[in-house]
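--- STAGE predict ---
source: upstream dedup step, 1 unique chain passed
mode: sequence only
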Amino acid sequence: MFRASALVASIAFCALLAVRASASAPAILYSPDAVVDADPSLNYAEPAIAADPTKARALVAAVESGTFNGVNVYASDNGGYDWQPASLSLTGTRLVGDVQLAAGPRSLYFASLGYESGVARPGIQFFTSTTNGDTFAHTAFVHSWHSYDHEQLSVDTGANRFRGRIYMSALYSIKVKPQVNACGLVWSDNGRTFHGPVPVVRGWCFNSRPITLANGNVLFPYLYATKLGQLSERIEVAISRDGGRGFGPPHEVGTYTALAPGAFIARLRTGELNFDGDPVPQFASYGNTVYAVWSDMATGTDRLLLSRSSDGGIRWSPPRAIVPARDAADAQYQVAIDVNARGEVGIAFLRERAASRTVCEMFTASTDGAKTFLPPVAIESTPAHLDAMQNSGYGASMDRFDGTVLVGFVTPGSRFPSGGDYVGTAVDSSGAFHPIWIDARTGSDQAWTATVRIAAPAAIPKSMRSANVSNAVDLEFGAGSWDAATKTFSVPVRLHNIGTRPLYPPFTVTVTMVRDPYAAKQFQQYYPSPILMNADNGKTGVGATFVYGAGELGNLGNLPRGAETAPRIWKVRIPWASVSSDMVTRIDAEIRR
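--- STAGE serialize ---
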């Protein structure tokens, strides 16, 4: 995004500065959500996210095309408010999807299914970044005669003998004709040389992300069914105590009740997308305690279930529902879980309202080891209509199959009715959660993020003073659009607190001049005055105002240091666009006492 200096542009903001606030019980506090890539021509699925361990507020996100036409990676240096494309070294490689991200002790890692010249079957392309996610170097292609699928990535960051070891679970072929699959683990200590696959289970299985424990053990979770289409599948974990070289017998976590294949197809054909057709149980650990959460169809509608193990994955508590449903028809699915350094458990999920046919990203959390959970809150500013997630535009893609080229035609909605097999969340060094999800509020499937903290809400200070904070606030401009017929430029504008203290609403941007004050008088006639088309007070020139209120702050109640507001669209008519148009703004503040 482009950043305008508050000093050069003579933009003055009026905000309320905090003097005193009070503490109360912990709550779920969230920032405004932000889109990773706002290109309306693209549809994305199965997003991943990771927090850089070496730089505060640095994040990296990855998405795959909803029509299997590519993979994109993005980096943020301000906690997920703004994203820029990351650079991947792709010489001789092709990426097709199942993107994964993970943070090691000193590096970021990215993995994707892909091909390499001269290799017939898909493998796992692996990349490493030591530049906070701005660039990723290709360091390995994990392949053999196996055909790999659905790789899931994690790294041991604990203080144990396997610290820094990279683990990837994967589904792979152990027999091609007839096809027989297995789930197994590959591992590496340097991201360049990988070992495995170490077999864990064979048959109708589907792997989850490996989980590392404080003692160095690694858990391999998976779904298992005795035959394809079975409605009740076992959720199991196998444990390795030697760094992934071998696994012991499985331990049962619970069962997942699936949707029958016929019912699955019937729902797709009628446009009923309020379910997770191919769920992947999600796991997280804190010390040697492990949490498992998944969406279950036992009631006919997806409900979140949670189980907990306090002995490193051997014995598990009976699965229980953790999120109450307002309506029996409401669905809960597409779940992600993580635990921060304080032991706070964060769970993000999609909630579908049957009555309104809308879907919204939700977040709930526990501060007592998953014994109780805070009431879930909607962290998505604008719920997406369920019909929009069908995304009927087709795309074409290719794959390789036994010496031939397989051509496929698919829509994001038919292949990924709930955004894919998985979404994600990451925890940064401050303990904040960063969920990432897919929704189609704009008409196409896009990836969105937000920052979520478990903290006491900030009370409105009893005493505040007005201030001009021009030197503490930047304008952040998103990708604008130009309407040639009306000569109108529409651009999303955020306010970014670059100062040292929280700022309180309202923020009122006022136009004070509609010309460039620095241009020589004899040239000012060549600079057309911009005309504001959607100011809050209806004015089109001097005196026009844009007010950013509490609604642009998530539920934070203030704009913390380093944070940004949600965007507001400024519509500006430019009489003729051959030369730059300029305007000067200020803010008038009020003192609250």
